[in-house]
Amino acid sequence: MGLWESLFDFLGLGSGTRTAQTSSSGSSAWQRTARTKEPARTIEAGVVCSGVVDYVDDKFVKVRSGEVVATVFLSELADVFVERATEFVSEGSYVRFVLKEPSSRKPGEWIASLSAVREAEVRARLREFEPGSDHACRVVDIQDKEVVLDCDGVPAKAPLHELSWSWIDHPSRCVRFGEELSARVLRIEAPDNWLNIKAARKARLIVSIKACVARPESPLVEMPFSAVPFRLWAEARKPRICDTVVMHVLTELALGARPEEIARVTGFNGLALQGILQALEDEALAREGAPTRKGKSLIDVIESTRQLNEARLRGLFASAAPQHSQFVAADQSDRHGEYPHAWPRPPAHTKVEDMFMAATDEAVPEPLVNLVADADNRAIVSSLLQDSRVRVFVRKDGLHPRKVVYLRVPEHWVLAGLWFAFDALGEAPFRPVDLSDRCKDLLVVRVRIPSTQADTPAADYYFDPVTGLYWTPRAESQAVIREMKGADFPEMPAFSPDGLGTKPRPPSRYERRWCRVKT
Question: From CA 469, how far away is CA 167, in angstroms rounded?
């Protein structure tokens, strides 16, 4: 046994290995494995390669991965400043690099980057995420306006307003460093041209933590509103000459009456009646004393509108209420007698009311129709809305231009409007993080406490009758506060001007004024 045979026996490889080395049949597993070719790699920009450093210069590095040869310049060695490449890598070092673009000076070679490897890996992982999906994350950094998270190796950012359903001034109030929690993907940020622009290498997820937590349910509070009475009305589109008298003549003709009979009943002289008949013929509504097809169609349309108008589909429009509560049943104003006459008129938005009263045809809101009409009348309204010969609209109803209605609205909606204009006095109530959906017209009572020092102005406090809370003005608020006339005030509890519960003061001892707050 020769030296190599003894060595193979010592290693436990035995004669089978020798056969694999010497056999020319190609039947051994070792031979098949040795001859198996690796699948061809796709060589293109953005591909991550693994290889070794072939050559190191002060200003660049040559790397190789199989048949791929690439040059990495100083600026692409790391995210930090590198003065000399020899200080960062050495020949023979194992590295991973990203292909940026083919070299313009050396055909067959590439320009590559070591610092973009992490970005390329992140962008490849981003394909696993979709907006709306929930993922487990870990807090890795807490900044002033956002939280940085790690979602299974993928960087993510949660903005301050996506951390909690209530307002917070710093992320540390609701999350802790290293805390594991769930987050929902809002969108995926992946700036273009990241291979050439370092500033674009910040692919990440934008997530929401509060979306994975149940939103606090708002209690309902009663709030008065000023509402406009309206009714749904329909009119036929008819020629201008078709006033009540002309339409009466056309209707009588449709019923079979002859012109002389119409003249006898109405008292029209022959000349006047002849003028009406001529006008009907000019509009192609009648011919030779009988209505045409167009005339009969107009009569049918007028009859349809009459049925709708006689149904008296009435309601109330509370313009300052939340959008889903603006349409109110007509009988809901029965409580308007409870609102004190000495108080200012409850909130209303005149511009919104004008837009509502201008609604016609397709602009008539569907919730309005569902509120004022039963199933049969809804079918009539739907038919008229699809009829180009008819105009359906809303018009003011009744002798009183406004009525007071009490509606149950979300307290958070009212608080959002108050927080927009004021700061809470004492213990702060719930503060929504999003103040866009808020009450934009508030009626409050101002309590003015005079200063004991001549050079100090009086202090103003505001009481909200809906929530029963006191508030203090905010200097940077954009709300508009205007005094209103009012001879009486709601029951107001005593309050502490410092908000700490010391020396409660009854507001009746001080000057009080009604104020309207536009937010």
Answer: 18
